[in-house]
TrEMBL record:
Segments passing through the bilayer: 12-33, 134-156, 184-208, 261-285
Domain of life the protein comes from: Eukaryota
InterPro entries named in the record: Anoctamin, Anoctamin_TM
Keywords: Membrane, Transmembrane, Transmembrane helix
Name by which UniProt lists this protein: Anoctamin
Gene: ANO7_2
UniProt-annotated location(s): Membrane
Primary location recorded for the protein, binned into one broad class: membrane
Family the UniProt entry places it in: Belongs to the anoctamin family.
Length: 322
């Protein structure tokens, strides 16, 4: 029982977004940060409910994540645009058909403008539009390191969707009742949280999911041209595990399954990279936020002038009353 309508709308928006966040982002987060992490090694595989944990493909989890994001940013957005074009027309057709059955033979020969507007579909607000844009913003920021083309596909989608929404709100929906609002409400806090989460997620993506840091450390320690890198990343399975004595798998482990010194050095480099990456990006964000003013200087001068004129008019009225 919220005290005001604004508090109710903000709470409702936050709950719906959390539900949609889990619904849309759980699979990419699983592929990016959990899939292939708890597989184990030969003779000691990790299991869950008696089944072996899922491993990434030969290309790595980053390729699978990029494929998944490509399907979302191209296929899903294309389907959404088709739905936004067809569904309003279907609703408008059903609305006109329902009104025609109610009016029957009493339909006027020359209907008036407000009667034609009444036949349109009632406007349900902008909640779904905001939700779609915020979810898209999350995809193009949280996982941009895995699929750098995501912002381009989002730009193309928004260019098309602007025209679809314009046609929908002008031709298919009734004119909505105007309401004044100071800002976009809790959506701004959600966007800000997503921007901070994206910095952390991209840092972990580059450090743990991609091969950028292992290659960099191998170049620094062994070979600058990466000679023998693939062979170095493969470990030998324990003896008598299979009929083939030299069975290999991708990991930095010894023959008995223990982690090598390179693994711990790489882990230290990864953690150091995450800390440095986050600090640098957050510093740049704060610097841009400080350099770019929230209110332009020309507008700020006009606001101050309006306040000055308002105070001057109030003082003159007080003198006249006295």
């Amino acid at each position: 029982m919220h005290r005001t309508q604004t508090q109710h709308d903000n709470a409702f928006t936050l709950k719906v977004f959390i539900f949609q966040f889990v619904n849309f982002y759980s699979s990419p987060f699983y592929v990016a940060f959990f899939k292939g992490r708890f597989v184990g090694y030969p003779t000691n595989y990790g299991t869950l409910f008696g089944m072996r944990n899922e491993d990434c493909g030969p290309g790595g989890c980053l390729i699978e994540l990029a494929e998944q994001l490509f399907i979302i940013m191209v296929g899903k957005q294309l389907i959404n645009n088709i739905q936004e074009f067809i569904i309003p027309k279907v609703k408008a057709w059903r609305q006109k058909r329902t009104l025609a059955s109610v009016l029957g033979d009493n339909k006027p020969d020359e209907p008036r403008r407000w009667e034609e507007d009444y036949k349109l579909v009632p406007c349900g607000g902008l909640f779904e539009e905001y939700l779609e844009m915020v979810l898209q913003f999350g995809f193009i920021t949280i996982f941009v390191a895995a699929f750098p083309l995501a912002p381009l596909f989002a730009l193309l989608n928004n260019w098309v969707e602007i025209r679809l929404d314009a046609h929908k709100f002008v031709c298919e929906y009734r004119r909505p009742v105007a309401e004044r609002a100071q800002n976009i409400g809790v959506w701004f806090n959600i966007l800000e949280a997503l921007s901070h989460l994206s910095v952390i997620a991209n840092a972990f993506l580059i450090a743990f999911t991609s091969d950028f840091l292992p290659r960099l450390l191998y170049q620094y320690k062994f070979s600058n041209d990466l000679n023998g890198y693939v062979n170095f990343t493969l470990a030998y399975a324990p003896l008598n595990y299979t009929d083939y004595p030299r069975c290999r798998y991708k990991a930095f482990r010894d023959d008995d399954g223990t982690y090598t010194l390179f693994y711990w050095e790489l882990l230290a480099v990864r953690l150091g990279f995450i800390i440095a990456f986050e600090h640098v990006v957050f510093f740049v964000l704060r610097a841009i936020d400080w350099i770019v003013p929230d209110v332009p200087e020309s507008l700020e001068l006009k606001i101050k002038r309006e306040r000055y004129l308002a105070k001057q008019a109030l003082a003159e009225n007080q003198e006249a009353l006295l």
